[in-house]
Amino acid sequence: xxxxxxxxxxxxxxxxxxxxxxxxxxxxxxxxxxxxxxxxxxxxxxxxxxxxxxxxxxxxxxxxxxxxxxxxxxxxxxxxxxxxxxxxxxxxxxxxxxxxxxxxxxxxxxxxxxxxxxxxxxxxxxxxxxxxxxxxxxxxxxxxxxxxxxxxxxxxxxxxxxxxxxxxxxxxxxxxxxxxxxxxxxxxxxxxxxxxxxxxxxxxxxxxxxxxxxxxxxxxxxxxxxxxxxxxxxxxxxxxxxxxxxxxxxxxxxxxxxxxxxxxxxxxxxxxxxxxxxxxxxxxxxxxxxxxxxxxxxxxxxxxxxxxxx
Length: 310
Known about the structure:
Number of domains: 2
Number of strands: 2
Helix content: over 70%
């Protein structure tokens, strides 16, 4: 699973790019030769640039048919090339096409190779955590953290300001990052333990390893409790969200009460209309109270979570 947690203090443009392509992280530790460009990239650039140089309209329609600006530019370029052919002959057309091909080839090669996201990954090493970087147990805890955080931040309650939206937007990503940093350290220590056990293990070494393993277990349990609190906040948010959705639907129906009352009164059932619309209004009031309670429980769970340090 491509689960990624980023340091909230990273530049926003880099955060967006890295979040959009988590599958490219973490990158190789060293930048590949020629920026990751291969012989295949060179061949593809030469092939496509030839089409750009002599048949730009055909290529634009095939690759960018839904982008009218690019198609319009290709039409102008194609018209210019044909104008050169008609006005100055085939040799001039051929040389013009070669010039366009050369420019296109350089542009295509510049765009080929390693993604900028990989460069961000190397530049910001230590400021993001991907599940691929963790041991399975720690990766599972990271996934739970990200799922719970996404549930709260993606909730209509948070969007509509019924929760503490400002605190959520600032504090939840930072809490997720703190959890990710701790999981990274747990993974490092687990791997150190595995490496120590792969060698000669004496009785004294075994005693030390057992003590360290117990410390890891205690730390993991403590972190799991913190994640469980985050999940409880998400669960309360989901419960309140369900009530909120029902309340909004019934509120919309109640606003149509006059239309229903008029419709029923036309059939000489005005008392029944009043009773039915009254029941609907009462249901909205009851649900509003339920919504208030549910949102308050979610806010309390969030306040308790967001007030914790570390």
